Amino acid sequence: MTGTGRLASFSPATGAKLADYPVDGPAEVAAAVGRAREAAKSWARAGWKGRRAALLAYKRALATRTGEIAEVIAAETGKPDHDARSEVLLAVIHLDWAARHARRVLGRRRVAPGLLSAHQRALLAYRPLGVVGVIGPWNYPVYTPMGSIGYALAAGNGVVFKPSELTPGTGVLLARIWNETLPEHTDLLCTVTGEGPTGEALARSAVDKVAFTGSPATARKVAAACAETLTPLTAEGGGKDAVLVGGDLDDAGLDRAAEAVVWGAMSNAGQTCAGVERVYAVASVHEALCERIVRRAKQVVTGPSQPGPDGEGSGGDAESEGGDGRAAGHEAHYGPMTLPSQLGTIEHHLKEAADAGARVLLGGPESVRAPYVHPVVLADVPEDSPVMREETFGPLVAVNSVSDLDEAVERANASSYALGAAVFTGSARAGQEAASKLRAGVVSVGSVLGFAAIPSLPFGGSGDSGYGRVHGEEGLHAFASPQAITVRRFAPLADLTSYATPREKASRMVELARRLHARM
Length: 520
Ligand code: NAD
Known about the structure:
By secondary structure, the protein is an alpha/beta fold. The protein folds into three domains: 23-237 and 472-480, 3-Layer(aba) Sandwich (Aldehyde Dehydrogenase, Chain A, domain 1); 241-298 and 336-455, Aldehyde Dehydrogenase, Chain A, domain 2 (3-Layer(aba) Sandwich); 495-519, no CATH class. It is 42% helix and 20% strand. The protein contains 15 helices and 24 strands. The N and C termini lie far apart (62 Å). Mean pLDDT is 94; it is low at 309-328. The chain binds nicotinamide-adenine-dinucleotide (NAD). Residues 135-140, 144, 162, 164-165, 195-196, 199-200, 203, 213-215, 218, 221-222, 236-239, 273, 339, 391, 419 line the site of nicotinamide-adenine-dinucleotide. Nicotinamide-adenine-dinucleotide binds at residues 135-140, 144, 162, 164-165, 195-196, 199-200, 203, 213-215, 218, 221-222, 236-239, 273, 339, 391, 419. Keywords: Oxidoreductase. It holds the Pfam family Aldedh. InterPro entries: Ald_DH/histidinol_DH, Ald_DH_C, Ald_DH_N, Aldehyde_DH_dom.
């Protein structure tokens, strides 16, 4: 079955059509997988050194062409140019790390064989899986998929990438830059375009692994499709991340925490899987923190970016222009909601919280002005409200009061999601102690999203946040299959894998080893 029709991409800021792309069906997806599989043969011949050089060349191309890539990201997602460029930089940092560390992490090495097998040489190798299908979201259309693409390529695989239907141009550009930079490895990275069915076709296309990032609901569907063929899956789902604020913070500490909460909650219009959605502050500092958060959130500007007199973008809508003290010609801090249906979710969460008695400290229903949502700060939100339980994915943060840090940990953990969290306390030690009690897969002490630019750290969560890890050594292992090799070096004292060994001799050896272990 081939795909039919065209997939159009639109500007979330203006609604204008940007471009259109093929809708790839099972036949086109299978062909792309075939091309990537063929290209993986020469990728294998390139060896660790050749692959490292090629990946670093690709990385340099992405860094050099950041402006071009950022332009497509900004057009498709609506995010400001600065944010789009920062996203490309993060992807570049991860690609660089994967390229430089793949051999150390996955290269063949000797391991200790143990006393009973001292006659064997024990080797551990990691083989590429083959072709990895990467299914991506729209909120970070380069950084998020590159966390799988870069590491999968570095591990020796080919990749077929299915970007979100909202950001097909970004995905197509990533593969085009690959082919332009590395013609000798053409189609090792292929992009297929389309909506959910194209992703489903990829999950069913006999790829050797699927790396999915998106909502938990879609993750379940992808897992079900993969289960039919026992295709392994890494599933990166959403989050409901909490920030914990201790009662021992001084004024400067509270300022830092408030600043981090506002950035973590509002940047990218709150459309960040590990963005800040909940805050649990110890009662003694709760009001002071709320006051600081509101003061800062009022300064955050959204709205259409307009060209300034110098030709650069100028942010701010009519209400906030001139009132934020920023010079004309600057961009807004964040752009429109990329996915139009998200506006309804935010409105619903806001209404449910207000109806349940939450205090609305900043904004309200009037903050939702499609396609933009202005910052919203809530306090004292009942814990069973959707705002505290479901992913809002908008510039809305709820700041609740708790009796102590232990209660903050308990509430943060009482979520179906367990992706990220952050802790602000007077001492780093207390922060680390609280971090160790959290279920979250990534915790930042004294900052938010501190891990994003540290490629050696694994990223991922559990529960509705998914399973498996991207980034770091774990992220390389995720795209490789361990192979254990033993090489017999000399004849053992008693060969336990041969009938030629007299039973009495073999039994003596077993008994000797048993006694040893009984005492060790
Ligand atoms: P989504 O689940 O709607 O779509 C994700 C991708 O899956 C898209 O490419 C889509 O076309 C594809 N898809 C849809 N149906 C499919 C099917 N049946 N089979 C295979 N593929 C299918 O998610 P989204 O709206 O694009 O992204 C937002 C979500 O992603 C949020 O929940 C966010 O928290 C999450 N996210 C998570 C991370 C992370 O690393 N944990 C990072 C970024 C975003």
